[in-house]
């Protein structure tokens, strides 16, 4: 399937189609950048950021919330690991994911949580 690419600021790039793998990665990014309950069409979609973005940052809480959010996407076969990095100066949390999207397809990606 061919889908439209989202730009970094959330707009549409009408000139750059993306393949299935990039569409899935884009969906994961949207899932993790959407606060739970924020999307009107599906209040159960998104990341529960209530305990993530406050002080003090707790890596175990962040990991648990990201794992729960990733379970919402049935296209992810499994995720082996992810790393959490916290930039306290910019109040940002970055998650580096290592995912199996298709049976044999291994993908790396980084998502910034709570940045928008």
UniProtKB/TrEMBL annotation:
InterPro entries: Sheath_initiator. Gene3D superfamilies: 3.10.450.40. This is IraD/Gp25-like domain-containing protein.
């Amino acid at each position: 399937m061919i889908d439209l690419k989202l730009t970094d600021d959330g707009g549409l790039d009408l000139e750059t189609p993306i393949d299935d793998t990039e569409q899935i990665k884009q969906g994961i990014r949207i899932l993790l950048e959407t606060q739970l309950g924020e999307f009107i069409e599906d209040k159960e979609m998104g990341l529960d950021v209530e305990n993530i973005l406050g002080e003090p940052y707790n890596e175990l809480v962040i990991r648990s919330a990201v794992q729960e959010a990733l379970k919402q996407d049935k296209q992810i076969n499994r995720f082996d690991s992810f790393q959490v990095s916290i930039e306290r100066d910019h109040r940002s949390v970055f998650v580096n994911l290592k995912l199996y999207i298709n049976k044999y397809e291994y993908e790396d990606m980084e998502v910034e949580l709570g940045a928008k």
